[in-house]
Design brief:
Length: about 500
């Protein structure tokens, strides 16, 4: 707690430095005046009293510096100073700065975009209320069971609520003289109530309803022209005429996960309709306890309604509903390998961008050899100059990361609105979150280190005397660092 208060006071000092310095000067002047008044009361003239007081006080500049040192966060102020110097240096050469930022923006933008798609796919959370309390139920190793089993388990009240969906149905939609095939999600009448799904328009299918339908945002926008008066309209599906009661939001994620997104949702009305079971755990109940209770219910169901050679109570599993939970259950190692390959490929793209910037920084260091030599000859430490040069690469990487995030925002919107040419309705919903920001910061720091460290170290190794000679061009070995960077770029490409 004491450390936190100390850190807070130091941060306040950074925000109020001008006010702090003014108050410090006034306080030191007050000390001098008080001491001079004491000496003057002892019979000393005012001018001599002030001179004596200043002599006793010592160096005012040293006292002020020591006082400020007790409040400063040294590394933060040094970093801010280095970044200000780097900003002035880059302003003097805008062409170089824009070229380097563009290279890094492309490399970082591609990385953050693929990272966004990967995390949205692998770590997706369904659009519902309190997804952490939702579970998927597997009976006898299967994910889908008939409605009769669903009703028996629901009536046992093991869970706070149960819902079911079959996302792989197809229906014929008749629009005038035209007939279209739609992917339908066959849901139980309490599906939307139990899950707590948000809506853009209207509501979900209510318990007891058999002739209602809910549209996906994609279908509503593409086939109905985003008509806000769609609610209450009847449509023709497989000869039936359900009423549209709701429209899902654009960024809706189904509980099925993995980007699967049916066009329309209709109620399951037949006892032999098969659905995947989902349930909400009661407060204070964990998965192991719920599984034990469910096991006893299924044993009773096996006794009442036995199936030849198969038991529902065998191999019962209760799992989470996030993307990784689904992958763990379905054993989709190729999916993980695919996204891992994508991350590696875009990482190589970023490496190429960093080597581009490193080559630019090497060329820039060569053109600044005389400036660096003068600074070294005046007493600047080599590590201080390395720190300044690294600050330039850090500033470039930070600006490149910001531009890359803008690229990511644009690409995320394009991907979210893209209809993939697949035989099943896959709709990726890519959102920016805290994971992306942390990843962007890490990529920016890594880019600054990769692009800036070798050029900075090479810049301070050059001979100071040769650098001070005006107009002398420092030659490089035939196979120097720039040549190795170019060869590396070609190899990675």
């Amino acid at each position: 707690m004491a450390y936190a208060k100390e850190l807070w006071r130091r941060l306040l000092y950074l925000a109020r430095r001008a006010r702090f310095h003014s108050e410090l000067s006034e306080e030191m002047e007050s000390h001098l005046e008080c001491r001079a008044d004491e000496l003057e009361q002892g019979g000393m003239p005012r001018a001599a009293a002030m001179a004596r007081a200043r002599l006793e006080f010592g160096s005012a500049a040293r006292a002020a510096e020591d006082t400020r040192a007790a409040w400063r966060i040294r590394w933060m102020e040094d970093l801010a100073s280095d970044l200000r110097y780097a900003g002035r240096a880059l302003r003097r050469n805008p062409g170089f700065a824009l070229t380097a930022i563009a290279c890094l923006a492309l490399g970082i933008g591609v990385n953050t975009t693929i990272f966004s798609i990967t995390t949205s796919f692998l770590f997706s959370v369904p659009s519902c209320r309190d997804a952490s309390s939702l579970v998927a139920i597997w009976l006898g190793g299967n994910s889908s069971r008939p409605m009769s089993d669903y009703k028996f388990i629901r009536n046992a009240h093991v869970f706070q609520g149960m819902a079911g969906i079959n996302p792989e149905r197809e229906v014929n939609w008749r629009d005038g003289d035209r007939t279209s095939r739609l992917y339908a999600g066959l849901v139980t009448d309490d599906y939307f109530t139990v899950l707590g799904v948000p809506f853009q328009l209207g509501r979900g299918i209510a318990p007891g309803e058999t002739d209602t339908a809910v549209l996906s945002h994609r279908l509503w926008r593409g086939r109905f022209g985003s008509d806000p008066s769609i609610l209450g309209r009847t449509i023709v599906l497989d000869g039936r005429m359900p009423t549209v009661v709701g429209v899902l939001p654009r960024d809706h994620r189904t509980i099925v996960g993995l980007g699967f997104s049916p066009d329309i949702y209709v109620p399951a009305v037949h006892e032999d309709d098969s659905v995947q079971f989902y349930a909400r755990l009661p407060e204070g109940t964990n998965r192991a306890s719920a599984r034990a209770q469910l096991q006893s219910v299924l044993q009773e169901l096996d006794r009442i309604d036995p199936k030849d050679g198969w038991k529902r109570s065998a191999n019962v599993r209760i799992t989470g509903v996030t993307g990784m939970d689904l992958l763990a259950q379905q054993g989709m190692d190729p999916v993980l390998a695919f996204f891992g390959m994508l991350i590696i490929v875009v990482g190589l793209v970023l490496l190429i961008a960093c080597t581009n910037v490193a080559s630019l920084l090497l060329a820039r260091a060569a053109s600044r050899s005389q400036e660096l030599a003068i600074r070294l000859s005046l007493g600047a430490g080599r590590m201080r100059i390395v720190r300044h040069l690294l600050a330039e690469s850090l500033l470039l990487a930070a600006l490149g990361a910001m531009a890359g995030l803008l690229i990511d925002v644009v690409c995320a919107r394009l991907v979210s609105s893209l209809q993939l040419p697949l035989p099943v309705p896959i709709q990726l919903v890519v959102k920016l979150d805290w994971r992306l920001l942390l990843y962007a910061v890490a990529v920016a720091l890594l880019s600054a280190l990769i692009a800036g460290l070798m050029p900075a170290l090479k810049a301070v190794r050059k001979d100071v005397n040769a650098g001070l000679k005006s107009g002398q061009r420092l030659t490089e070995r035939r196979w120097g660092l720039r040549s190795l960077l170019v060869a590396g770029q070609l190899a990675v490409s």
